[in-house]
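Worked example

This section walks through a single chain of length 72. The input is the sequence exactly as stored; nothing has been trimmed or padded.
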Amino acid sequence: MKVNTSDLIYQGEKSGVHNWNTFSGTSFYWHPDWLHIAEDMTGHNALEKIDIPQGGATKTDAEKAILKHLNK
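Given that input, the structure is written out below as tokens.
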């Protein structure tokens, strides 16, 4: 079953770190300075690099990277 944007629960941003949860309870984190998403707030467990077309990564780019990871 394919995961969609509507399956991600955006928890907001705290100190620049954005957080999403899935219905299964997995958390994903991203900060604009990171070129990846992570499963912990330290960013050390990079899961998926964010494809950046031009300029800096955005929240939408991070969501796309999360979905790419979940749909592997």
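What to look for: The longest helix spans residues 59-70.
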